[in-house]
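Researcher: Batch entry, complex prediction.
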Amino acid sequence: MSTTKERFGLALIAIALIALPFVLASAGTAWVRITNFAVLFVLLSLGLNIVVGFAGLLDLGYVAFYAVGAYVYALLASPHFGLHLPFWVILPIGAAVACIAGVILGAPTLRLRGDYLAIVTLGFGEIVRIFMNNLSAPINLTNGPKGISRIDSFQIGPINFAGSDTFAGLVFSGPIKYYYLLMLVLLGVIVINRRLQDSRIGRAWVAIREDEIAAKASGINTRNIKLLAFAMGASFGGIAGGMFAAMQTFVSPESFVLNESIMVLSMVVLGGMGNIWGVIAGAVLLSFVPELLRYTVEPAQVALFGKLLIDPEVLRMLVFGAALVLTMRFRPAGLWPETRHRREMSENRA
Amino acid sequence: MDILLQQIINGLTTGSVYAVVALGYTMVYGVIQLINFAHGEVVMIGAMVAFSVISSLAGGGLPPLVIVLAGVIAAIPACMVMGYLLERAAYRPLRHAPRLAPLITAIGMSIILQHLALLVWGRNPLAFPQIIDNRVFAVGGAAISSVQIAIILLSLIMMAGLSWFVYRTRFGIAIRATAENVHVAGLMGINADRVIAATFVIGAGLGAVAGVMYGSYYGIAHYTMGFSLGLKAFSAAVLGGIGNIAGAMLGGILLGLVEALGTGYVGDLTNLCRWPGAGEGMGWMGERCADGAHFVLFGSNYQEVFAFLMLILVLVFRPSGLLGERVSERA
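Model: Structure tokens for the complex:
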């Protein structure tokens, strides 16, 4: 694990990641923002990976927990209710509320088979969105489709994440500060994930994924362990949601549609369900697809046909759909599979 | 009283459409024990194809019935091909893979189909051309239109036809045998691949007609319509007992009724001002309810929620559905 060579490699990666935002900033702040969203999607994918990858429970409404986290942040730190709590109070609240939502969703459905779970979570995601859209009457809770705006940015002591600061001759713009914060959170999430994976709980998840009946026979309380996977995944979604709300300073139900859930699922599936590094790679890869399309396919279409034939957003969803189908068809364990999962997915079961 | 009757008529109409779509889910599930995730999208494409044909023929001087029939006749083979391709692309290659794999490919296919439809037909809903003289009949204080009558009758005919096919023909026996046990059915000389493909194709054909009915009832077809229709029809199939053909029909109609009645009455039921003790000047609530004001917790804008709530309740209290056999937790 910790040979000198590996340590050296890790140090190099760390330095590269620390220097990255300044390199990107020289190409334009927009690139830092795009990178931040990629990191946000990595966070989401790691959360979903616990549910889909580790425990093998297909969750198609994951974006609901992201939405819950975002709305908790929006309600507790915006002029909507006149509340302005600091972020280190709200993020845990958001994670806890999302966790409760996960348990509420999981409790009635987890004893059912996987495909039922998929449909129920799909419906749940929609329901959360419908509620956000309609809870503006009789009491204005969510401000309906108009969403909540003027959400507070993060504030640590004197440092506000909305503006720029100059430190040691370097200009730290808002997005750069968010980048470092996101990286810190990501590091924490990765550490938790690694520890979880090798823990008693993580091994129980894998056992359930591979054979639930055998897992039960081995003395695993499958219901509680599955519920735990749901709750954990949901909490990570909630944290990512809070970060999203603070970064955007605006949330509306529009941001939490089914397509977002599908996107996160594609990232987990493409990268390799259950493998943390694979999932990260999948999320980074697919996060940059829209940008890639914007810079290649759009000009190509204009050059060939003189106008935009295929809307890049449609193209993006087609890419995600194709990623799901083709990965399952040709590399069912993902591009960077976990060894154990590869064996499982290629096994021919009668 | 007439409102109740009206909601029942409306519920029967949408319910019979749900029932026909639910048949597609239930047949596939009965044979391979997997949910055909993209079935809603197939139904949507049926409606879109039919609407395109109807729009292009409208105003050509043909009788309206012939035009609608042409639309349906165009939609059925289109959907059947779609159902077949779906099975070949998303399900057959993964028949022996873990359950998660075909589910994921099916979700991928449904996303692809939805966005292909968006490319072909655009973002705006297609409107059903005003060619049918939609007569309205009065029934005991409520109204029923000729389109509603046609939808209910056509659904009943299709359900009867499918029952006859599954229970009275040789191929129907093959389908039921495969549903019972694929391997033993294979030993009896049944080509399981053909049977499985056939259930997808038949379900898609029924779905095509359902799509046209649904579209003509609401007057529009849209590339996203398959999602909620699919979710509701699946809920209907689960309610009736998935894998059970009679169950899908019963579940569809029940769900339509629950949805119509729920949407019709939820506003009144959750209007806190109507609750006993409310508008009697008791502090906060009294203020809100003064001058006959309303304080409605949930209005008819929660229509989409009913099917889902029903699904959750069924899964919690009777996962096997009304007519289904016990569903094992995991095979």
